[in-house]
Amino acid sequence: MEFGSPLCDEFHLCMPPPDYKDPKFYKFSGEGDLRRHLQGFKDECELKISVDSRLQAKFFPHSLEEEAHEWFYSLLKRSITSFRELSNLFLDQYKNNIKHEVMVSDLCAMRQGNNESLEKFVVWFKKTWQQIKTKLTKKRGKQYLQRCCYIIFTISCC
Asked: Who's near 27: CB < 8 A, 6+ residues apart?
């Protein structure tokens, strides 16, 4: 295996415009929300460097640290031919970091643990409720909570 940059030579020859400003990248270590990282990286590049995808690919390793930086340099030398390809490899590598979008159905699936107090369950329920992108009215949220509590009460009495 050859060591070195996985970017093809074309990327290394591409230079940023003379008026570019040093970007301040949020460093991705292999932990955290990779979609947020990738979008933040693209936004920072477009703002401070260029929309040129070759430059984005060239600067991408500067937004990585620790495990993610090691992953980048473990790719085959000169194997990456586009920023899209690099982005897809990155997303595939860290796909388990993609945050699950909380849905209303998640509220219905919630169950109180055997040794969990009702107070702790209600706190958990409210926290989950607040993560739902499609906001529920207070009335609808209370209905879901009442339904969950009724189910818990019915199950615990049996």
From this structure: 63, 64, 65
